[in-house]
Design goal:
homodimer, mainly alpha, Four Helix Bundle (Hemerythrin (Met), subunit A), DNA-binding, Arc Repressor Mutant, subunit A
Chain lengths: 219, 219
Amino acid sequence: MSANQPGSSLYKAFKQDIQAGRLPVGTPLKQTELAQRYGVSRIPVRDAIKQLMAEGWLAQHGKRGVMIPPLDPTEAEDLYLMRMYLEPLILTHAIPHLSHQTLGQAQDLLQQLDDTTLDPHQHGALNWSFHALLYQAAQRPVLYQTIADLHRQCARYIGYQSLTLDYLHTSQAEHHDLLDAIRDKNTRLAKSILKQHISEAGEQLVAYLRGLSDTVAQP
Amino acid sequence: MSANQPGSSLYKAFKQDIQAGRLPVGTPLKQTELAQRYGVSRIPVRDAIKQLMAEGWLAQHGKRGVMIPPLDPTEAEDLYLMRMYLEPLILTHAIPHLSHQTLGQAQDLLQQLDDTTLDPHQHGALNWSFHALLYQAAQRPVLYQTIADLHRQCARYIGYQSLTLDYLHTSQAEHHDLLDAIRDKNTRLAKSILKQHISEAGEQLVAYLRGLSDTVAQP
DNA sequence: TTTTGCATAAATGTATACAAATATAAAAAT
DNA sequence: ATTTTTATATTTGTATACATTTATGCAAAA
């Protein structure tokens, strides 16, 4: 098999199990157990662990072993803070290159996002598709990759959160406004809408996470 | 052995060999050859490769094998662009927390940077120590880590570049101005100096890299 | 009862060996 | 001569086996 690229079946299955919360958070994971779980030897498990650690899905647990790092509101806050600055930046570079065809595709994705029966994971994936489509036009591979990494990190946090209908409507309205501003080549407006949009999403998530830790961590 | 944390001797030796240009750029590296070079089996070599790939020191070469990615001016440009936005951001968060002691340490580092006999690697390391000292005070681990990663990526590019004495003087003057602004708690000024400082460093590097590819790539 | 030391057990790191996949070269056909 | 096919060699991916390190539990001493 073409094994351990981000595309290895073990890597994918492992990551999905982390995302879906099917593995314990904060406790050390044993290589042997993981090998049994996925029906392979420890070597490919080690390879996958290395990669997932580098991507932030796993963290060192003491001197030995790895764990799924617990959710941390401050971490989420930082991720959204960075997105607030980097995404308007890449959007600026993207706008001059956006074709009518791409804008049409973006419009299509927006319509799919109107479906309020989507679960948080599906919604998150579609949402990223929309933004990614716009950002890729900037033709800035390294900048794009960093932003994609930030989204990947954020993806670990959403999916727990059940979004209110009210928030979903606001978010969608902003998406439409953003696309309109882009069509008008009004870069300044587009940037400010996007920054606001990310800021709100961040606040929503951080508030949710802080609520969680308040109810859970009772000494 | 405590093997493959970023601290494994193999990982360190391997990365240093890449940084120092002791391994061929752009051609596939054979696991067997690397294993022989470092006197170990292929397993730890594979572990190190995984990690270095995730950190950007190595890249996929076609379907099989890895290579040291060639230097790319556009990539460097993106890295500095991101730093221009993220470093002033973290500095803003850091300034309220900076103690007199930390500012004193920063002053010390600045004096060491006056030494113009340093080679590019030493200079780069000291320069990062100075900035890192300030940034850590922000107590924003995730934001800090991302910025540190960007610097690590940049480190692959500098070290080839021989900095002009003129640039070194300008750069040091900016460092002093920055520290003064921070002492005055003049956040606005500090941010603008820092952004300018990074912008100049980026332009210097990108110009150098473009010069390189112009002279090398003759069909 | 608490703490220190040691013995045992568990888990990770590495080497060797083998299987699968890809690239290379040579031979055959057009 | 060029292209396609086939066989060979090289290289990577994985499993098993062993060495090394860290954790755990028990006993003895304070």
